[in-house]
Amino acid sequence: MDIGDIRTEIDELDARIMELFRERFRKTEEIGRRKRESGMEIEDLDREREVLENFKRHGSGVEEGFIERLVALILEYSKEVQRR
Fold first, then answer.
1. H or E stretch covering 49
2. Which domains does the chain have, with CATH numbers?
3. pTM of the prediction?
4. What is the pLDDT of residues 8-22, one digit of tens each?
């Protein structure tokens, strides 16, 4: 397998990751709608801690600092989506 083959595999993984992000943010939109309908706050710090812990639990072999930055970015965008 040469470098081009490996890059092709990475491209395929990236496409799968993006599909999962699209699915996640569709769910986030639904949560935001339900929160607004019920008068709930968008920000839920307990849930944010739970999401981070879930990522860390499933992130064996991935640097913890990367996980924390990734989750912070995902949660920031999720709250933007929920506010729409």
1. helix 45-58
2. 3-83 (1.20.59.10)
3. 0.88
4. 999 999 999 999 999
What letter does residue 40 receive in the DSSP assignment?
A: -
Which residue shows structure tokens 């339900």?
34
Q: Are 79 and 45 in contact (CB under 8 A)?
A: no
Write out pLDDT tens, residues 20-32. Answer: 999 999 999 999 9
Of 19, 28, 14, nearest in space to 80 by CA: 28
Q: Residue holding tokens 């709250």?
A: 79
Chain position carrying tokens 């595999």: 9
Question: Which residues have C-beta within 8 Å of that of residue 24, sequence separation ≥ 6?
Answer: 74, 78
CA-to-CA distance for 73 and 68, rounded, in angstroms?
A: 9
Report which residue type is found at 70. Answer: L
Reduce the DSSP state of residue 42 to 3 states and report it.
Answer: coil
Which tokens is 55 given? 């990522």
